[in-house]
Structures are given as C-alpha cells and as structure tokens.
Design a protein that fits this description.
This protein has 13 helices and 14 strands. It has helices spanning about 20-30, 55-70, 105-115, 120-130, 150-165, 175-185, 195-210, 235-240, 270-275, 315-335, 350-360, 370-380, 400-405; strands at about 45-50, 75-80, 85-95, 140-145, 165-175, 225-230, 250-255, 290, 300-305, 310-315, 340-345, 365, 385, 395. It is globular. The N and C termini lie far apart (about 60 Å).
C-alpha cells in the first residue's frame, strides 16, 4: 500500500501522516459498497441518501486537495435540491462561489468509485497529476439542507476533511445560495460582503430597500407575496430574511416544513412540471405566489386568474423581465459599450427568445443544456442573464458597477 504523498519509486519529501487514518476510516467506517457506480455532474453527486456515506466522506478529502491546489477556501453543500426527501447529494463550490471547475469532476468521480484498497492510490494520483503541495494548509466550509440524511452525511464529510488534516467550519443548515455566498466572501476577505449568514441577509435587504424606493407612485405594485417553501430550508431562511426588510414586504409562507414532506406536491419543480398550484396554495384570483425548491436555489412565480386558470411565470419569463429592465438602464445611461446578453438553451420558450431579441433589443446566446454552460457563457457578457425554465438562474455582472454610477441604488 503506497502512502499518501508517496511517489512511485520512493517517498516524496512531503508525505502526509494522516494517510493511514484516511485509509482506516474509509475501510472501517465509510466503506464503499461493491458495484456502486456514481458520476459527478452539473448537480454534483445525487442519489439515495443511504448510498452516499462513502461518497461524501471522499468528497471531504477532495475538498481538502482542491483547497490546497487553489490555496483558498472551498465549499461543500449537502443537498439534493428538488429531489424527493429520501435522496441526497453533494457538490463542491470553488473559491469565487461558483461551481467546481469541470476538469475536477473526473477526479471526483474517480475517488467516489475507487475501491477501499485503491483509495490512497487514487488520492496520490490527483496529487501527482496536479502537483499539489500537500503541506499547503486547507480550509473547507460546508452546510446542508433539512433532509433527515443530511446531518449524518455531514459527519462523513467532516471525517474526510479531518482525514487529510484540513480545517473546516460547519455552517449547519443553509440554502445553497447562502453557502455559495459565504465561500465568495471568505475568499474575498470580506470585499464581497460579510462572511456570515447575517451578512447575507443584510446585503440582499439593503439592495431590496433601495430598489423598493423606486416603486413610489407605482399603483400596480402590491408588497404581498404567498411563498411555497417546498417544506425545505428556503422557508426557514425566508423567515430570517423578513426581519431585515423593514416591513416593506409581507410574505405568507406555506409548506414551511412544520408538516409535509420535502418537495412532495410542492416546490418549484413540482409547479413547473405539473403546471398547477402546489399543495396548500391559496386559490384566490390575482394573488402573487412563488415557489422555492428544496434547497432554495430555484424560484418560479404563479397566480390564478378570475376563471381559476393557472398561470406560471417560469425562468424564461424571469429572464425576459430582467433583460427588459437591464436593457432599459443601459439605454438610459447611454453606456452602449456595455455588452449585455441573455443565455438560453434549445429548450427555452421560443416566444421568450423572440421577445428578448426583437422587443427588448437584447442579444440571446444559445448553449447546451446545463447550468455550467449557461453560466460560463453569461460571464462572457458585461451583464449576462440566464434562467432555466425551472427557475434556476442569476444575473452575472462585471459591468453592473458602471451602471450604478449612473443609476445608484
């Protein structure tokens, strides 16, 4: 058995003394079941929670290697998003708060599928291939959603981090966007925001309060929302968020986790796929309603009209509204050198593509399906907008600060 940090033909100058502990933990406590293959994709690893112990243990070790390689803090989120409650998953978050670099997905897959007696060799292969300095300090921060399996899986993650001598901070239960935020803040030394959960609320609340001041005199706007929390972490954190909004928004939260199963007959994916209101939603006409998914990183809106017909405002419509708004700001500011664009996939609503191109006058780029493709293309614009139809998306901006010089929030 080769030691961690050992090179073929002899010991390197920096062998890790923790290699034996890593091996023993993997074989004794976090054993890999035979004939279980799993692949790291855009959403990380995702399967039945009962099948993930050894995978998440190994992702703790990979997060340590990634931290050493990048000389930065790496995040790990334990969640299966919109999947049923019995499923779970794990994904790594890179230093800038974005998804794991895709070249590392193969390392994640290899480690997860290596037999127990091949684990040390698999770790060494990554170290050798990438020239990782194993004496470099490593720091990992992690969080989890509210699934019953998430807490024990977080213990497996911690064991993996400790096995390779990494330091860590356990942030407990958070939404996926909150964990991404904390990673970005930690690595920017606070320049992006305070690296605390409270800092997340304060940053968003400050922006919302300023934005709210621009709707004075708008008779169509009513600051009321009915929110389907998917019986997940988003409901819990929205209650915290409301304490920072100065009473400017009234949110009636249902499917808040006090009863009902995670994502069962509720949540953004259910509303999008079934094209109907979720369990517990008000049926009155004209009420503004929204749905999160299980880890709070998807958002769709919906309402019922006077005839009881369901209407969905999905990611395509959200992207359209964003493009309209940002396009207007750019034209008003006369900063025409800014490159703005919307990124969609071939599955996007064709009517939305036509509207964004021809009415909003914002270019549309098309990429293969998958958030990583959407995000990478959006970053090629000064301001890039993307939302999958399921409500998963964002606005990626490098030129937005310039706009704020003309239109300060």
């Amino acid at each position: 058995m080769m030691q961690l940090g050992q090179q073929e033909g002899g010991l390197s100058s920096v062998p890790l003394p923790q290699h034996r502990q890593a091996f023993l933990l993997a074989t004794q406590t976090h054993r890999k079941p035979p004939d279980k293959f799993i692949e790291y994709g855009t959403a990380g690893f995702r399967t039945r929670g009962s099948d993930l112990d050894h995978v998440i243990f190994r992702m703790g070790m990979l997060a340590v290697l990634r931290s050493k390689a990048k000389m930065a803090t790496i995040g790990v989120m334990i969640t299966a998003s919109h999947n049923p409650e019995d499923d779970n998953g794990v994904k790594l978050v890179d230093p800038n708060g974005e998804m794991l670099e895709n070249t590392w997905e193969v390392h994640a897959t290899t480690l997860a599928n290596s037999s127990d007696d091949q684990l040390v060799e698999a770790l060494n292969a990554v170290i050798r291939l990438l020239g990782i300095d194993v004496l470099q300090p490593a720091n990992v921060i992690y969080a989890r959603d509210t699934r019953p399996s998430s807490h024990p899986l977080s213990e497996a993650l911690k064991a993996g981090i400790e096995a390779l001598g990494g330091s860590y901070v356990d942030y407990g239960i958070l939404t996926t966007p909150q964990l991404h935020y904390l990673v970005r803040c930690t690595n920017s030394a606070g320049a992006y925001g305070k690296a605390t959960e409270a800092g997340y609320y304060e940053k968003l609340a400050t922006a919302f309060v300023h934005l709210n001041s621009s709707v004075d005199g708008c008779t169509a706007y009513r600051p009321q929302l009915w929110l389907d929390g998917a019986n997940g972490v988003g409901a819990l954190k929205m209650k915290e968020m409301l304490q920072h909004l100065q009473g400017l928004l009234s949110v009636n939260i249902f499917n808040d986790g006090s009863s009902g199963k995670l994502n069962h007959l509720c949540g953004a994916d259910f509303v999008k796929v079934q094209q109907c209101i979720p369990l517990g939603a008000p049926k009155d006409s004209g009420l503004r309603c929204a749905s999160f998914d299980g880890d709070g990183d998807r958002l769709v809106y919906f309402y019922s009209d006077q005839n009881g017909c369901f209407h969905l405002l999905d990611g395509d419509k959200i992207a359209t509204l964003m493009a309209n708004y940002i396009g207007d700001l750019v034209r008003q500011a006369e900063v025409l050198s800014l490159k703005i664009g919307v990124v969609q996939t071939a599955y996007a609503n064709g009517a939305s593509t036509d509207y964004i191109n021809n009415a909003a006058k914002v270019p549309v780029a098309c990429v293969p399906t998958g958030v990583k493709h959407l995000h990478h293309r959006a970053q090629e614009f000064d301001i890039g907008v993307y939302f999958e139809a399921n409500g998963h998306g964002t606005v990626s901006s490098t030129g937005f600060l310039l706009l704020l010089c003309y239109f300060p929030l």
